[in-house]
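Table S7 (text form). Paired inputs.
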Amino acid sequence: MKKHTPSLLLLALIGLTFALNSCTKPVPEDTAYIFTSFREPSTRGLQYLYSLDGLHWDTLPGVWLAPMVGNDTTYIDAWTGQEQAPKYYPDERVMRDPSIVRGPDGTFHLVWTTQWMGSRGFGYASSRDLIHWSEQRVIDVMADIPTNNVWAPELFYDEELRQYLIIWSSQIDPLTYTAADTLGTNSCHRLWYTTTRDFLTFTPAQRYYDPGFNSIDGYLLQRGPKDYVLVVKDNRKPGFSNLFCVFGDSPYGPFHPSNLSLPSDATNESNPSNSSNPSNPSNPSNSSNPSNLPPSPTFGRTYSEGPCAIWLGDEWIIYFDQYHPQEYGAVATRDFLTFTPIPERISVPADHKHGTIVEVSRKQLDALIKYANEH
C-alpha cells in the first residue's frame, strides 16, 4: 500500500476543514419553508414550493389563490395619452411576483403584480393558514402619479416602527431619463415605497433608492440592528440586467456601498428622512443616489431578476429568477459583497417563477400537504 506523505495528509485535512466550514448549519427540526410562486402564463394564480432545508424545493400541487382583481380593460397611456390594451394579458387578470411576509400576530400578508401594463396598484390579500384567503383588493398606490405599471411589490415588516414597508417599481417619464437610462433600450423604472400598519390606510407613494438608472425588483432584508441590505436589479438592456446590493442603517435609506462611507454633507440636514415623522418616514434624499458611488459587485448571470434571500445557519442564500433561459439560480454570501454561485447545492422545480420565502412550522407545512392531497 502506498504511504501518504505528510504534505498530502495536510492538504487532505485542509480540504476537509474547508468543506465542513462551507456547509450550512442544519435547519431546526420544527422549521420548514414556503416559497411563493407563479407559473407562466400568470393567469392561474398563487402556487407554492416547500422545503425542509431551504435548499431543496418541491412543488405543493394546486393553485392557492386565483387572481380576482386587477385591470383587464384598456387604459390611457400616461405618456402618449392614447388608449392601450394591457400587454400580454389584455382580457385576463394575472398574479405575478407574489411576495409574502408574516406579521407579528401570525397573519400572512401577500402582495402581487396585477398586470404587466395598465395598472397603478398592486394586489393584496391575507391569510392565517396559507389556505384560506381574505377578499382580494387592489391598493392603488400610484393613482395620482403618472405611470403605466406597478411591478413586483415586495413586503418588509419594520419591527422598530411596527409597520409594513412595501417597495415596488414603476415607469418614469421619458423626459426625465438620465444618460445612464439611455444605455438601455426598454422603458425605465425607479423604486417607490409606501407604509401601512393595517393594510387599510397607506402613506403617499414616495421614491425609494434611485441609482440613477433603470432599476426594478428591490428586495429588502435586515442583517441586524441598523443594518439593512437592499438587493436591486439593474434593468438596462442589453448588456446589463443583473443584480447588485446597497446598504443602509434604516429600512428607509439612504443606501450606499458598505465599503465606502457617505460624503460628509450627507447629514440630517440634507437627509430629511432622519428627522421625519416616524409614523410616515419620508425619504426625499433617495430620489437620487446620495453618495454618487457604485453599488456592490453584480451577481447572477445576465437576465436575472426577482431576488429574495434566506438566512441558513451561517450564511445568506440569495435566490433569483434567471429567465433567459428559464432556470432558478442562487448564490451564498456572508457580506453581500462577495457571492458564490451554488447550483450544485440547490434544486428548484423548472417552472418556478419570481416569489419570496417565508418560514413556517412543520405542523403548518403538514396541514398544507394534507389539504393539497385532499383537493
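Next pair, protein 2 of 2.
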Amino acid sequence: MFLQLDNISFSYPGTGIPVFSDLSLTFMTGWTVIAGANGTGKSTLISIAAGLLEPDSGSVKREGDVILCSQVFDGLSPADWSDIFSGDNHVGMLKSMLAITDEMIEREESLSGGEKKRLQLLAALSHSPEILILDEPTNHLDAYSRDLIIKALRSFDGIGIIVSHDRTFASSLSERTLLLERGTDEAATVEDIPLTLAAALEESRRRKQEKRNTYSSILSSISDENMIARSIRERSLEKQKNLSKRGIDRKDHDAKARIDGARLTSKDASLDGAMRNHISRSVQLEEKLAGMKKPLLRKEGLSLTGGNYVPSISFPESVLHSGDYSLIVPSFSIKPGSHIALTGRNGSGKTLFLKNFHEYLSEHGKGQYVLYIPQEFSEEELCSLSDAFMSLEDDEKGLVLSDMYRMGSNPSALFTEELSKLSPGELKKLAIALSRRNECTVLLMDEPTNHLDIVSMGILEKMFREDGKDLTMIIVSHDESFLAACTDISWVVERDGNEGKIRFL
C-alpha cells in the first residue's frame, strides 16, 4: 500500500491564486498529522489525497482502499450496516474498543456528539481500509471519548492521515507532522517534520527564528561592509587632498618634489584595493539576500491588562437544574487573577454552571466587567456582536481588525460577508477584541479552542499566560495542552446518574 503526491498543483476556479504548486509528498504506513492555520489548504490536501478533488497538474498514486471521515457524521450507510453486523471478530473487537453496543447503533440519531464520532470511526474501520483519513476527529469530544478513539486508532496498521489541532491526541499517535503555511497571494508551503505535533510547532518556530537571525545578520554585514568601504574612500580622498600641488608656489621645486615622492610611495593603491574588496563582499551578500525570502515576524498577542479592577468574587452554595439533572455547586470565592480550568465528561454540567455563574454576576452588578464566550453563538448573541461592531467609528473598527489579526485572523477576509457567515472561531476572537473596548477583566470561556486552528490557539495561550495575568478566568475545555498553558487551578465536575457536583482540587 502507498499514497504518493507528485508535483501537484491546484487552484479553485476563479481565484487565480494556487493553493498548492508543485507539491510532492509520500505517505507511508503509520500516522501522519497535518496542521496549520485556517485557509492554508489542509482540507484541500486531504480531499486531493482521497480522490475527492483532482489536481490541476501532477499526479496522485494510490494503492489500497481509501476512506475519509469528515468532521460531520451523516449517519450509517447500507454498506456500514452490513460490515458492522457481519459477525467478524475484528469488528467485535472494535466495538469493544470504542464502547459501542448494538443498542447504541440502533438509535444512532439520538447519540451524543462523542458517541456519533465513535460510531463513525467504527464504520470506517469495519471496512478495513488501507488508507484512512480523519478530519478533526476529536472536535467537541471529552477525554473519555478521545481515549477510546486513540485506542482504536492504534490498532490500525495502514496509512493514516489526521488533520488535527489537538496536540495531546495527535502526539499520542504520530511522530510525523506536516505543517502548512500560506500567505494571502501565494501557494502553501509544507514543512515535513519527523516530530509530534507539539514538538514540530516548537521546531518550526525555532527554524523561523533562525532564518530571521540569519537574514538580520546578513543585513548587518552588508551595512558593515559598506560603512568600511566608505571610510576607506574618505581616507583615500583625504590623502589625495593632502598630496595636491594646488596652492604651492610654482617656483617651490623642493615642495613639489616632496609631494611627487610621497605619491610614489603612497598606499592609495592598497586603499583602493581594500575598498574594492569590501564592496565586492557587500555585493555578494546582497545577492545572497536576494535569493532568500524575507522572514516576516507576525505581530501577535494583545495586552489584556489595565481593565476595571474586580475584587474577589463569591458564589453561594447552589443546586442548578437542567431537566432531570441536578448539579450541586459548593460555595466558593475566587481571588482576582485566578486562572481556573473546569473539566469533566460531556453532559456533566460544565456549560450549565458557566451560564448560571454569568447570570449571577450580571444580577449582582458585575456584568459589565465580564466577557462570556459560549461554545456556539445563538442568534441573539450573534446580533449583539454585530451591533457592537457596527456601532463603532471607523478608527475603532480598524483597531478591532488589528486585534483580530494579532489573534491569528486575516483582516482582509473578515468582513467581506455578513458576520453570520464568520466561523465560530472568528466570532470568538471578535468577542475578545470587542471586549477590550470595555476593559473586561473576568473571562468565562466555554471550549474556546473549538473551531480554532493551531496557530490561533498558540497565540491565545501566550496572551492568557503572559498578558492576562491580571484577568480572572474560568475556562471549560477538553484540551489538556491549552489548559496546562493557561490555568493554574483545577475544578472538575463529577456526574453520577442524574446528580453531579463540582469538586475543587
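The first helix runs from residue 42 to 50.
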